[in-house]
Amino acid sequence: MKKIAVLLMAVMLMTVVFTGCGGEDVPNTDNKDKVASDLPTIGIVQIVEHPSLDTIRENIIKQLVDEGFIDGETVKIDYKNAQNDTNNLKTICQSFTANNYDLIIAIATPSAQAALGETTEIPIVFSAVTDPVGAKLVDSMENPGGNITGTSDAVSASKIMDLALQITPDIKKIGAIYSTGEVNSVSVINELKQYAKTKDIEVVEATIMNSSEIQQAAQSLIGNVDAVFSPIDNTVASSMPTIVDVLNKAKIPYYVAADSMVADGGLATDGVNYVALGKATGSMAAEVLNGADTATMPVQVMSDTQIYINKKTADDIGIKIPKEILEKATDLSE
Ligand code: TRP
């Protein structure tokens, strides 16, 4: 008897739903989650998992919480990772726009480019885009001009090379391992080439299209260069152990562009703090959720840098880091 009553109630309830009383409330499959929770929805898209991007994402979310945007309570957060595949990026961004999310947070250059490729309406806040103008995301850093703004990690090849020449002054030939498909890398490499010219250093390029080419690229430089440099490259950052293994065995100093790449075995960098960058991105996202206009919100450039070294790598390859640098550097080998 009890069972029947329950069944009957269920049938009645379904009838109410399917006859669609109150037209607006009819669940539309596309928009199901949003309607069900009735909370603003944020889509977070990240190109690939590597320690730096993960740190950024965690701190964006932390900052959003601090500003009252709590997943499941005041907002809904849908996080997706593209496993370094551009087709995945496109599918993810298409689903965010099809579901008419309220905000897209795009972590790293390729994600931001994919998001903007799908919508010129939904606001996008990007994070850690090295060269937003070069990547054609904004008209200018001061006046983005459209539905997109965010934070930039102003990576300087010159600063990193100044440090490299203090640690290993005899660099005559420097290898450059990077992805030709990442604008963020290409713009830093262009700066490296300018710098190298002024110091009479030859740049030997070892470019890659995807992570499967990394080992071969690193190998091609052995015996041919005095040091190797990598810019802020997502593909390189997600395959550090492979490169470090090849270069450390050959005792070649490897200068990189991010703290996480030093933690993963690179010798040294003069780089941005990504905890601070993540928090700054979270604040900008909160402003946009509160109604600010992306078109007139300047891109925030994180230009404060710090020296990071890996003492274990230095010991392994037999390099002595000068005392003046050791004193101000953070050792990430522990
Ligand atoms: N700046 C990179 C971009 O524009 C993203 C990035 C942030 C990154 N931190 C990193 C890349 C550390 C490599 C390593 O896409």
Care to describe what's here?
The chain is of the alpha/beta class. It folds into 2 domains: 2-153 and 274-301, Rossmann fold (3-Layer(aba) Sandwich), CATH 3.40.50; 157-272 and 305-331, Rossmann fold, CATH 3.40.50. The chain has 14 helices and 13 strands. It has a 6-stranded parallel beta sheet with strand order 2-1-3-4-5-11, sandwiched between helices. It has a 4-stranded parallel beta sheet with strand order 7-6-8-9, with helices on both faces. It has a 3-stranded mixed beta sheet with strand order 10-12-13. Helix 3 links the parallel strand 1 (41-46) and strand 2 (76-81). It is elongated, with a radius of gyration of 24 Å. It starts with a helix and ends with a strand. The site of tryptophan has 17 residues, from helix 3, helix 9 and helix 11.
Structural class, by secondary structure, is alpha/beta
CATH C-level class of the largest domain: Alpha Beta
Helix fraction bin: 40-55%
Question: What is the annotated CATH architecture of the largest domain?
Answer: 3-Layer(aba) Sandwich
Which small compounds were modeled alongside the protein?
tryptophan
C-alpha-based Rg, rounded: 24 Å
Pattern of helices and strands: HHEHEHEHEEHEHEHEHHEHEHEEHHE
Strand order of the largest sheet: 2-1-3-4-5-11
What coarse outline follows from CA principal-axis ratios?
Answer: elongated
- Rounded mean pLDDT is 91
CATH topology of the largest domain: Rossmann fold
The CATH H-level superfamily of the largest domain is Response regulator
Question: Quick one: biggest sheet?
Answer: 6 strands, parallel
- The total tally of domains equals 2
Strand content: 15-25%
Spatial gap, N to C terminus:
67 Å
| Low-pLDDT segments | 1-36
DSSP strand tally = 13
